[in-house]
Write a structure and sequence with these properties.
This protein is mostly helical. The chain has 6 helices and 2 strands. The chain has one domain: Orthogonal Bundle (Arc Repressor Mutant, subunit A), CATH 1.10.10.1340. It has a two-stranded antiparallel ribbon with strand order 1-2. A hairpin with a 2-residue loop joins strand 1 and strand 2. Helix 2 runs antiparallel to helix 6.
């Protein structure tokens, strides 16, 4: 598997005008959205071995220095971890699970703002 990209540098190759680092950051942050996880499952991506391997590779975002670039580290890393489990990749097809995840995140956000 490829090694994680280095934090941004000017000389890094661009893909559609974006660095690999920027593209992976945007994608990994999108995993914080339960509706997006449901979309990935509905497109059958979460059952493709290559995509599952890519999700495992993205675990590097949970460690420094990459962690500091995440806008919503809590739900992003929680969902990335859950996506490592085959059962979760199947269960996220359920609208009930999606709604429960949304409600949990709203509750966590409200509690965080209160403290």
């Amino acid at each position: 598997m490829d090694s994680p990209p280095a934090p941004p540098r000017d000389a890094e190759p661009k893909y559609g005008g974006f660095s690999r680092f920027e593209m992976e950051l945007e994608f990994v942050q999108s995993l914080a959205n339960p509706h997006y996880l449901n979309h990935l499952a509905s497109q059958k991506l979460l059952s493709q071995p290559a995509f599952v391997a890519y999700l495992a590779y993205l675990q590097y975002w949970s460690r420094p220095p990459y962690l500091k670039y995440l806008t919503y580290p809590g739900p992003t890393l929680r969902h990335l971890e859950l996506l490592q489990q085959e059962q979760f990749r199947q269960d996220i097809m359920s609208p009930d699970l999606v709604q429960r995840l949304v409600e949990e995140e709203i509750k966590a956000s409200v509690e965080w703002h209160r403290s």
